[in-house]
Specification:
The chain is of the alpha+beta class. The chain contains six helices and five strands, in the order H-E-H-E-H-E-H-E-E-H-H. The chain has two domains: 127 residues, Alpha-Beta Plaits, CATH 3.30.70; 45 residues. 58% of the residues lie in helices and 15% in strands. Helix 1 crosses helix 3. The radius of gyration is 27 Å and the shape is elongated. The protein starts with a helix and ends with a helix.
Amino acid sequence: MSMTKEQKRAVVAALEEKLQETPTLYLTNFSGLTVEQATDLRNKFREAGVEFKVIKNTLLRLAMERLGGYEELFDHLNGPTAVAFSEEPAAPARVIKNYLADTKLERPELKGAYVDGAIFHEDALELLAALKSKEELIGDILGLLMAPMANIIGGLQAQGGNLVGALKTIAEQKGEA
């Protein structure tokens, strides 16, 4: 069943909104997966907080053209395309990588990705899967910021211990005299 022009306009408008609010999108080729495999893959994406949808290439391209910045992905909008939308840049790559490792299949394969304004092509799956999550990066930064303070506190505590020890020794010497 084909869509009416009004339905297509509504889909393109919804895609524009989704593209504006989601910093990460992956284009994948899922052809060759059985219904059971595709369902399993969708479940894995859902568990990771990733929205995974099959979208018509022409409608996605229209939404991308209207927003701009996606031009490098246009070459990847051919054949069967499923799109993974995510707040977390590495989540879709990790799901794809783990799914491929677990199932020993060749699909889904990465066609291209858009991550916070940067474009990645089909050979970037390993790189994208290795990205740290926002929480991991914040933890690393906090650890780096806290390390000097911990060193200062440790040094002050050690000096205080040395001072108490010295005072104790002096008091003992005065007591003996």
